[in-house]
């Protein structure tokens, strides 16, 4: 009787597939749906009432993040004849778009796409077995991949787990610039002296309410050059550039660098388990001995001699934005990995790790409305086939005027870094901000950008861009008090003529606007590249307990442990340089301690 019921159930599960097949017309069909960055187009071949093949023919999705969704989902839809296949964790928008595009093609062929979504997908059972390794790395972002490459290259038995189905974390949406100090392979014409960089760092953070541990930070910064030299010795190519106050090395755009790190780790024998989530740290007599993990098939344990936590920050934590009212206006998600949910911090706290007193956002460059898309940087590319992206769509704005929802200025637009202006925006907590341009471009910003703004302003959307023939007309379209904006504009023009700005903007950036010819207001969004806080570590990245002692066998590197590194103000390329270095140091220390036994 049980066998009969099981057979009947199986037949019932197959019914939607038969419903789908009825009436399908053979042929090649083009389907389309909107993905994360734009339309995704697929070609679906229908023959004999079945989907024979699917190919993605066009997309604008971010490489590395989207790769698995663009390849695995079409393969599984064909294999199971179902749109009920799982989305790729970490690439949800792309996954849904691929399935929607396939559904579009199926509908065109006369099939029932709704029924196709209900076809059950029965995967083979996988028996999870407990595992053992020398070094377990939890998290597949910048710090985790750096640790994996280092430990693997030094001969250790290494397992890296990542809860998402994709690797790279926030590195996938980063520009790929790494702070580089005291490197033997740097361009000798670039000043990468430690004292030079630390003088800049201390000066810019002088008025920061939150202060980093300068001794700890200086020690880590001093070793960034050694990290670059190590990567160079492993065959990674980079270009050294001077950002004005500090040098950095460029490894192409972040997702390309992440891909190279993954391939290098695999070449060194590192076992990588994606879709595998850490649940809790296993302790024995005060020492970390393993991690309980889970995947789609169940729960098991991975025991290890050394454990390196590199789980990222908490920008995607459900309660971060609710923690501070000023964060309601901040774009927390666009520039940080979707896996940054703070779970690693919780697990470290659960085993007695000393944690920072607060968790706050790491300021990014301030950005435009999503409609503007990304901007390709003029920085050189490491290879001809890989573009370098500047990490946002923000051209230099030091010579522009930035106003709030009342039409007033509130800070100098020409701070040492756009990230400082962004932090001022977060603290000012205005519900809206705009950069002001003139249609004649008298201030001399990127002409291509001005043309783009002109096109965007045609919709007259104050959350994107608006135009006004006069300052008063511009204020009306922005929705700000006209008297305030006129007063702000006149005072700014006077400051440009005198060379003295009440907000301290340097005279070289005080370029007057045209007095007539029309003006644009471009909406600006404060953003975040992550969070600052988490576990406290020592100089070798050992996790420290609440009594000030290292927790045996446990390390933390990257954004899960940043409380000692940054104050209120953040500077681009510091994260990748410091996180890569922290991962390298943690791995080197772990291998050395294992070998010393």
How would you sum up this structure, described in words?
The chain has 597 residues and is of the alpha+beta class. It has three domains: 117 residues, Sufe protein. Chain: A (Alpha-Beta Complex), CATH 3.90.1010.20; 295 residues, FAD/NAD(P)-binding domain (3-Layer(bba) Sandwich), CATH 3.50.50; 155 residues, Alpha-Beta Complex (Flavocytochrome C3, Chain A, domain 1). It has 16 helices and 20 strands. The strands form five sheets. Strands 4, 5, 9, 10, 11, 12, 19 and 20 form an eight-stranded mixed β-sheet that branches. The protein has a four-stranded antiparallel β-sheet with strand order 14-15-17-16, with helices on both faces. It has a three-stranded antiparallel β-sheet with strand order 1-2-3. A hairpin with a 2-residue loop joins strand 10 and strand 11. Helix 2 packs across helix 3 and helix 14 crosses helix 15. It is globular and about 75 Å long. The N terminus is likely disordered.
**Large-scale geometry:** globular
Return the CATH class of the largest domain: Alpha Beta
Helix content: 25-40%
**Could you describe the largest sheet, including whether it forms a barrel?**
8 strands, mixed
Kindly summarize this structure in a few lines:
The protein has 597 residues and is α+β, with helices and mostly antiparallel strands. The chain has helices at 2-21, 67-80, 92-108, 113-118, 142-153, 194-204, 214-221, 224-233, 254-267, 320-323, 343-350, 418-428, 447-456, 471-478, 482-498, 574-595; strands spanning 27-34, 39-47, 50-58, 131-138, 158-162, 177-179, 239-242, 247-250, 271-274, 277-284, 287-295, 298-309, 360-363, 401-404, 433-438, 465-468, 519-524, 528-532, 542-544, 550-556. A hairpin with a 4-residue loop joins strand 7 and strand 8.
């Amino acid at each position: 009787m049980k066998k009969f019921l099981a057979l009947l159930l199986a037949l019932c599960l197959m019914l939607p597939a038969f419903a789908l097949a009825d009436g399908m017309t053979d042929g090649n069909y083009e389907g389309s749906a909107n993905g994360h960055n734009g339309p995704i187009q697929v070609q679906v071949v229908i023959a004999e009432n079945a989907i024979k093949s699917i190919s993605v023919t066009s997309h604008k999705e971010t490489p590395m993040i989207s790769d698995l969704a663009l390849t695995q989902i079409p393969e599984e839809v064909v294999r199971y004849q179902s749109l009920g296949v799982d989305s790729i964790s970490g690439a949800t928008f792309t996954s849904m778009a691929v399935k929607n595009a396939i559904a579009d093609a199926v509908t065109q062929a006369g099939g029932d796409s709704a029924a196709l979504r209900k076809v059950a997908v029965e995967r083979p059972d996988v028996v999870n077995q407990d595992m053992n390794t020398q070094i377990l790395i939890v998290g597949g972002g910048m710090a985790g991949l750096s640790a994996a490459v280092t430990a693997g290259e030094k001969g250790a038995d290494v397992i890296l787990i990542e809860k998402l189905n994709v690797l790279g974390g926030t590195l996938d949406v980063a520009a790929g610039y790494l702070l580089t100090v005291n490197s033997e392979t740097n361009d000798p014409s670039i000043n990468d002296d430690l004292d030079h960089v630390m003088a800049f760092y201390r000066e810019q953070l002088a008025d920061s309410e939150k202060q980093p541990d300068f001794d700890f930070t200086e020690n880590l910064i001093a070793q960034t050059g050694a990290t670059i030299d190590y990567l160079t010795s492993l065959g990674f190519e980079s270009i050294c550039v001077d950002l004005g106050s500090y040098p950095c090395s460029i490894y192409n755009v972040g997702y390309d660098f992440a891909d190279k790190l993954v391939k290098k780790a695999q070449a060194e024998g590192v076992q990588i388990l994606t879709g595998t989530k850490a649940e809790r740290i296993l302790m024995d007599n005060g020492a970390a001995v393993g991690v309980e993990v889970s995947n789609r098939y169940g729960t098991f344990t991975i025991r290890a001699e050394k454990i390196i936590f590199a789980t990222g920050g908490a920008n995607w934590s459900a309660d971060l934005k609710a923690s501070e009212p000023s964060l309601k206006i901040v774009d927390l998600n666009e520039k940080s990995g979707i896996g940054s949910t703070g779970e690693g911090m919780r697990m470290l706290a659960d085993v007695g790790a000393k944690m920072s007193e607060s968790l706050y956002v790491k300021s990014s460059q301030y950005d435009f409305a999503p409609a503007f898309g990304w901007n390709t940087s003029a920085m050189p590319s490491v290879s001809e086939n890989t573009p370098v992206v500047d990490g946002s769509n923000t051209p230099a704005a030091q010579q522009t005027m930035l106003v709030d929802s009342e039409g007033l200025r509130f800070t100098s637009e020409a701070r040492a870094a756009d990230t400082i202006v962004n932090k001022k925006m977060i603290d000012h907590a205005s519900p809206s901000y705009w950069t002001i341009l003139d249609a004649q471009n008298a201030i001399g910003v990127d002409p291509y950008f001005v043309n783009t703004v002109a096109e965007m302003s045609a919709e007259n959307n104050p959350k994107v861009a608006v135009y006004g023939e006069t300052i008063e007309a511009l204020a009306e379209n922005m929705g700000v008090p006209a008297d305030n904006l006129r007063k702000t504009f006149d005072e700014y023009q006077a400051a440009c003529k005198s060379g003295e700005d009440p907000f301290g903007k340097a005279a070289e950036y005080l370029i007057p606007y045209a007095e007539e010819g029309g003006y644009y207001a471009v909406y600006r969004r404060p953003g975040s590249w992550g969070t600052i806080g988490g576990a406290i570590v020592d100089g070798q990245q050992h996790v420290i307990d609440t009594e000030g002692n290292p927790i045996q066998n446990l390390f933390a590197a990257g954004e899960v442990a940043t409380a000692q590194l940054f104050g209120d103000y953040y500077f681009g390329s510091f994260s990748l340089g410091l996180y890569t270095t922290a991962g390298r140091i943690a791995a080197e220390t772990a291998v050395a301690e294992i070998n010393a036994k």
